[in-house]
């Protein structure tokens, strides 16, 4: 070998060595970054920002499975700010993980064994940081996308099926033309060029039809590739093994789909290297990607259950990692205790709201109905939300923001932050009555139910509001219903005294400022600080005194005295 050849070989080796070194360095940097990234996320508040489109797509897995169990409806979801709670919890790394976490919050469990299985997973992930990190690295490859995995699967179901015989015939034409060159070079070249032109035109036309579906393939393949890595992981832990087995079962049903999938959905297909360029020409002139695309589509038919197994079990594992991470963030939490009972009850000590930076904890034992009174901003609505949120968190991620929690399994419905339906033409009152009616209808089912009502029937006049709301609330006083209601109508505390237990929040006025302690107290509200505020703002002293006297007289007699002309303050 002469010196020139040796120099050329040496040069090529050096170039290949440099390329390999760059690849290895980039791979090392990525792995190091991923390790640090995932470790840093554990026990931290997620800093992700969501678009409305992303949140909409995340909800679709839950929507597709809403008929399987009790589903938190939109009114309750919005009343409780559960979208913000989901964002706080969502430390998942995969698309199916965040979809399953959303599903867990939207479908509070009624079975103890399901929640205990989730508890076992969360505790395992807490105590096995190395294995948890390894699993997260696998799940990380199932990237979060703009569409739900459920949507991608539905899209694939609707793709028109095509026979690939036509593409196979066209693929043979260039090969036949090459053979013809040996018999008649001129004719063979003409045939080859014609075949390449025709195939190029057909490929350009038909590849555009499948281009929009390739993302679906990539998402499904990311699930399959994750399952492949789990299959190679020799972890025989009794906690994870059942989930791994179900993942591998789903993977087995998709063998045909993933075989040769790189021809269609290779994420590295955009690289500008010789291999990629060569592959592109193979696709164009031999329709390898078109043939494989429709072949893979056929392989998916009848294997929807395999995909569901992958999504459900990978999603559950990733969601439980996210829930375990949330626990690490909390300064105080407890594991709920459930009692199987047809009667609804709740005993919560030191309950607090998950979204408050400096929350005030309150305790409640509710074996029947609870009526809350107190002034605006005293804490009524926050307490109602605190109770409902802890019930949902207890029955979804087996975690309560409390010192202790013991309750029956319950469905949850609320009627709180309602608005006029301008598009539907409904007034606030109509919207409110419809919201309450759905609670009354659910109460007829006879299953334990927690219902939260804030300012019942505020959209009508005082007389009709008190008359109607007292009967609505009384109808909810059933053994299987736990009703929490807040009102400004003190009259209701007397009307419902034999049915509802009275609690209140109160405030103090110190140094001409309103001070709230947000502590729940037994009994009805008795303060009249709303009238005292008139004095602080600068209302006439006579007017304030008369208002206080009138309120005191009403409390004593239950009757409002009519005013004459001489009673009007000048």
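-> sequence recovered:
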């Amino acid at each position: 070998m002469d010196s020139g050849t040796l120099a050329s070989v040496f040069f090529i080796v050096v170039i290949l060595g440099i390329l390999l070194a760059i690849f290895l360095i980039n791979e090392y940097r990525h792995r190091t970054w991923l390790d640090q990234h995932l470790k840093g996320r554990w026990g931290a508040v997620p800093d992700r920002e969501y678009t409305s489109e992303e949140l909409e797509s995340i909800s679709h897995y839950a929507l597709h499975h809403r008929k399987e169990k009790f589903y938190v409806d939109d009114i309750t979801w919005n009343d409780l700010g559960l979208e913000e709670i989901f964002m706080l919890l969502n430390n998942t790394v995969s698309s199916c993980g965040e979809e399953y976490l959303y599903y867990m919050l939207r479908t509070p469990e009624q079975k103890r064994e399901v929640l205990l299985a989730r508890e076992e997973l969360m505790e395992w992930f807490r105590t096995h940081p190395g294995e948890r990190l390894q699993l997260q690295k696998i799940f990380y490859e199932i990237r979060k996308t703009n569409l739900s995995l459920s949507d991608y699967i539905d899209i694939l179901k609707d793709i028109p099926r095509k026979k690939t015989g036509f593409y196979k015939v066209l693929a043979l034409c260039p090969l036949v033309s090459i053979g013809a060159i040996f018999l008649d070079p001129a004719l063979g070249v003409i045939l080859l060029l014609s075949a390449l032109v025709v195939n190029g035109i057909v490929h350009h036309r038909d590849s555009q039809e499948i281009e929009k579906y390739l993302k679906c393939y990539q998402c499904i393949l990311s699930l399959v590739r994750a399952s492949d890595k789990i299959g190679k992981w020799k972890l025989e832990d009794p906690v994870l093994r059942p989930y791994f087995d179900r993942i591998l079962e789903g993977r087995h049903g998709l063998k045909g789909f993933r075989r040769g999938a790189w021809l269609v959905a290779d994420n590295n297909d955009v690289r500008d290297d010789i291999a990629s360029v060569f592959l592109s020409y193979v696709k164009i002139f031999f329709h390898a990607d078109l043939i494989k695309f429709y072949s893979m589509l056929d392989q998916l038919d009848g294997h929807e259950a395999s995909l569901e197994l992958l999504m459900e079990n990978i999603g559950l594992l990733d969601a439980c990692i996210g829930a375990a991470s949330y626990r690490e963030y909390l300064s105080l939490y407890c594991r709920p205790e459930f009692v199987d009972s047809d009667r609804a009850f709740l005993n919560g000590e030191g309950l607090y709201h998950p979204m408050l930076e400096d929350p005030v904890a309150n305790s409640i034992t509710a074996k029947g109905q609870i009526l809350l009174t107190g002034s605006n901003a005293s804490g009524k609505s926050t307490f109602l939300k605190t109770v409902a949120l802890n019930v949902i968190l207890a029955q979804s991620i087996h975690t309560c923001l409390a010192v202790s929690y013991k309750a029956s399994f319950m469905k949850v419905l609320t009627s709180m932050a309602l608005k006029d339906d301008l598009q539907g033409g409904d007034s606030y009152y109509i919207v409110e009555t419809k919201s309450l009616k759905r609670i009354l209808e659910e109460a007829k089912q006879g299953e334990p139910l927690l219902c939260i009502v804030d300012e019942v029937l505020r959209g009508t006049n005082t007389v009709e509001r008190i008359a109607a709301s007292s009967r609505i609330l009384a109808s909810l006083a059933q053994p299987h219903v736990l009703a929490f209601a807040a009102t400004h109508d003190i009259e209701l505390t007397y009307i419902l005294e034999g049915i509802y237990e009275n609690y209140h929040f109160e405030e103090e006025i110190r140094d001409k400022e309103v001070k709230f302690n947000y502590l729940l107290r037994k009994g009805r509200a008795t303060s009249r600080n709303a009238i005292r505020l008139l004095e602080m703002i600068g209302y006439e002293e006579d007017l304030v005194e008369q208002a206080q006297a009138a309120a005191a007289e009403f409390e004593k007699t239950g009757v409002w005295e009519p005013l004459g002309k001489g009673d009007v303050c000048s």
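Confidence is low (pLDDT under 50) at residues 267-272.
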